[in-house]
Amino acid sequence: MAPTIVPSTTPGPDPHVDLHTDTPTQMVRKGVGLDDPDLESGLAAMHKGGTNVVVEVLWPPKDPATPDAWAAQVERLFAKVESEDKRLEAVELAKSPADVRRALAAGHVAMLVSIEGAHGIDKVGVAGLAALHDRGLSLIGLTWTFSNRFAGSSGDPPAGNPEGTGLTDAGRDLVDEANRLGVVLDVSHASDAATLETCQRSHAPIIASHSDADGVRVQARNLSDEAIRCIAQKGGVIGLNFHSTFVGSGADVAKVADHADYLKKIGGAGVVALGSDFDGLIKTPEGLTDAGDIPNLWAELKRRGWTEDELRGVQGANFMRTWQAVIDAAGEPHAPR
Ligand SMILES: [Zn+2]
């Protein structure tokens, strides 16, 4: 919906951001809208839990493994998000931090769009990123669970090389183009090698939208201390993932909070964010079964001594800082390396 125009300086509610939901896939599969009450991150659950900025992920499954099929799925999901934006008064497709502030001031939910895996732009290539960005793409993940022509995935490290493969030439071009446009680079699912290479090459902060810490549970999808440090030093954020396989055995609110404490210990409180993976067919932890339960995590962190400022950061201010920095760095020429 066209938002009510209010100055961007108008104070609104604090942003409560979820950096990764697979809700578009579920909406298309089930033929429902964001107001469907059974979605883990539908409007009702978000209202209950306080989420007011949500990354709606366009996820092209691996199979059928053709660039045409991936592009068609991205199109289908993007169109669904756009149709919900038009259909529902309570949500806005946000393309900038200013759009988010306007949506929040109007009491609406801001939807950001991301593609999970650069195979989703295989057909249009790096040159096609600009058109997607114009349409409202704000973030892009380098890979999903398999390596693509841009980067290595944590899902399939070659035998004898647990770090996995890094960026290809096309991947380096993608990093540079995302930097130029102000698109946020997301290294969740990328191999350790691709994560570090992206972190070092990018001249803007990067994020891991939905990843936990190896320091709490060693898992291919979780981040090494080196990766956490690099993302933090760049000014990026890491979204806590709620999937029990990544959280660890006996996954519950306390165990998710252990990951938050660990990320804070290694990277500082400013690196911590939230990327639930809701509606992604995850095994949810006890006490975090849908977006309505997220306040349970805030209560646990508060109990552990996180300050109000630190909590506001995790809830959304950290990501909004990162996103603005990516946009501020856009257009700067890339230093040769
Ligand atoms: Zn994922």
**CA-based gyration radius:** 18 Å
Ligand inventory: zinc ion
CATH names the topology as TIM Barrel
Helix/strand-derived category reads alpha/beta
Give the CA-CA distance, first to last residue: 44 Å
- Strand element count: 9
CATH homologous superfamily identity: Metal-dependent hydrolases
H-E string: EHHEHEHEHEHEHEHEHHEHH
Put simply, the count of helices is 12
Strand residues, percent: 5-15%
Q: Look at the structure and give the mean pLDDT.
A: 95
Helicity, as a percent range: 25-40%
Shape: globular
CATH architecture: Alpha-Beta Barrel
Q: Unreliable stretches, pLDDT < 50, 5 or more residues?
A: none
Walk me through what this model shows.
- The protein is an alpha/beta fold and 337 residues long.
- It has a single domain, classed as Metal-dependent hydrolases (TIM Barrel), CATH 3.20.20.
- The protein has helices at residues 23-30, 43-49, 67-87, 97-105, 129-135, 169-181, 192-201, 225-233, 244-247, 253-267, 295-303, 308-329, and strands spanning 17-21, 53-58, 91-93, 109-116, 137-141, 184-186, 207-208, 237-240, 272-274.
- The strands form two sheets. Strands 1, 2, 3, 4, 5 and 6 form a six-stranded parallel sheet that branches. A three-stranded parallel sheet has the order 7-8-9.
- The radius of gyration is 18 Å and the shape is globular.
- 54% of the residues are buried.
- The mean pLDDT is 95.
- Bound molecules: zinc ion.
- Zinc ion is lined by residues 116, 189, 210.
